[in-house]
Amino acid sequence: MAARVIWAHRLLALMLGLFITAHLLGHLAALHSIAAQDAVLETLRRVYRAPWVEPFLLGGFAVQIAIGLRLVWRRMAEKQKSIWSWLQILSGLYLALFVTLHASAAVWARWQYDLDTDFYWPAGTLVLSPLKYGFAPYYFLGIVSVFIHLAAALHFAGAVRWPKILIGAGVLLAIALLAAFSGQLYSIELPESHKDYYTAYPGVDP
Fold first, then answer.
1. Which residues contact residue 64 at a Cβ distance below 8 angstroms, ignoring those fewer than 6 apart?
2. Cβ proximity of 123 and 117 under 8 Å
3. Verdict on whether the full-model pTM lies above 0.90
4. How many helices (H) and strands (E) does the chain have?
């Protein structure tokens, strides 16, 4: 049973990893410009937001989180845990939290407020005070956790150099994306629709 659970977790990780990779690459286009990022994501959305794809994608993440939590429970029962075991556990738990919050917030913004979750949706949380003080570490850890979790898996598969390289790449990618979405590379003027959306947060005055 345990072997089948691990196999299912790895298979889902491969499938969902394709989406995560494409999504991060789409965001990476923001290093060039806002228009470039939105153009790339709009192309990707034609696939992952298709009516026959999005429900399976969200369901896949839900199943992956459930399986992951079961594996965390097994790993926590081990008496001796290495630093890589703790990195795998903590990154997995944070990813479960991040994916749940991020996906539900995106779906809620679209369905309840009819808000386009384009560049300005995450950017609003990184340019407005006091949101940026909480969302900057939230996004940073979310991105880095993806790379740490993959690095841990590669470590347990016998890789030596790649795990550390992956973690370093994740940190650099997170810093680059935060710089773009927080207005460090160019000025960001939020549309009125997004300003109105963020006024619902306590203390925010766009």
1. 9, 12, 13, 16
2. no
3. yes
4. 8, 0
